[in-house]
Amino acid sequence: MRESYTTTSILQDCLRESPSPITPATAAQHISQRLLRNEKDLSNAENNSAEGYLWQLWRDFFNAAEQTPHDHPGQDRLVQVIVELQKLPSRRVSVWNLRDYVLWEELPILGPSLREAWNAGPRALPGEIEEADAIGWRRLNSFTARLVNAGILTNTLLGFWSIRDALEETGLSRSGRECSVAAAAEWVVHTQRFFLEDIARMEATGEEDRRMAGGALYDGPKRLSGDRWRFWKRRFEELGGQL
């Protein structure tokens, strides 16, 4: 592997249709070799080298997802690269001086990186949304929903927020509503069964989660429920005729 082979170029090669792309498994090996080339840097908690590498790694994945159409096979190839990363031999790496994480099994910093991307995304903004931003947001939501479907992410909270923004909030511009609904639809397409499982669990236990508080148009309990799911279906139908 050449020294200049960055994560971005590795992912581009994996997504390339012609000439023949490298496989997700080969891409994962190249990524791991690149990040682990200097074992001393990765194990040095004082200079946070591992943390910096990993933040940039996940940003590179998100950027690749935002450049890949939401319905393109490349989205699944990106997910498969992460699946293949988790299969590689494990070693421990220190992050934030808090504890050691298992690289690659635990995919350290992926969750916080996604939260940062969600906080920076065009979620429920009152102003107009640029077309390029809306397209990128839908693609990132599609990628993240596929991570849930592949078992890489273990909950649907990010999807819940995207759906709530689209269907429960008021005051969005037309472009903001279009952007939010398109992103929400990706979660329904790729993770519906996970939402239905969460609904069954939360209804059986009665548990609530303050992070699931309703938006302006929904005043039900702070959880997923059959009633909320039906409300969302009605809202999708209503908005389908308005967009």
Automatic annotation (TrEMBL):
- Name the source's superkingdom: Eukaryota
Q: Which InterPro entries match?
A: OpdG, Oxopyrrolidines_Biosynth-assoc
One Pfam family, short name: DUF3632
This protein's name: Uncharacterized protein
Q: Which organism is it from?
A: Aspergillus heteromorphus CBS 117.55
